[in-house]
Design a protein that fits this description.
It is a single chain. With 142 residues, the chain is of the alpha+beta class. The chain has 2 domains: 44 residues; 76 residues, Arc Repressor Mutant, subunit A (Orthogonal Bundle), CATH 1.10.10. The chain contains 4 helices and 7 strands. The protein is globular and about 40 Å long. It starts with 5 loop residues before the first strand and ends with a helix.
């Protein structure tokens, strides 16, 4: 699962693939429509998906979004609709990431994560072999 070139752009729905970085913005591709274009940094903020962490109660740095998506893949059959009642969304997210900080992780955050997961899964962008990546990491440590 490679989230390194995927960004969320404030004011625009969906997830974008970063094609190039310019001084005053980014050239991105809308993964849903395939349209490419320049997005200025004066009007928008960019959030790389690989830099997003979810607040947890057991670790200071939180859980990486990649870890949350991996856990969601294990619970994929149970993916709720983002418009589900707040209690259902919280229960699902607690099953996926039991140690998430319920005071700092809001329902709107959970909805966004579910939407991103569904979108990336629909476009087959979550199909990286996390086991292979773990093995590479273990080989490097030896």
């Amino acid at each position: 699962m490679d989230l390194s070139n995927l960004v969320a752009v404030s004011g625009k729905s969906g997830i974008f693939k970063m094609l190039s970085n310019k001084g005053s913005g980014l050239i991105v591709e809308n993964l849903d429509t395939g349209k490419k274009g320049f997005v200025t940094a004066r009007q928008h903020q960019f959030t790389p998906l690989e830099s997003i962490s979810i607040y947890t109660t057991d670790t200071e740095g939180g859980a990486e979004l990649k870890t949350v998506f991996t856990n969601m893949q294990k619970h994929e059959g149970e993916l709720p609709d983002p418009k589900s009642p707040a209690d259902d969304l919280r229960a699902y997210f607690t099953a996926v990431l039991p140690e998430h900080d319920q005071d700092q992780v809001h329902i709107s955050d959970i909805k966004k994560i579910i939407k991103w997961f569904a979108f990336l899964n629909k476009h087959d962008l979550l199909s990286g072999d996390s086991e292979d990546e773990a093995e590479v990491g273990n080989d490097e440590e030896e």
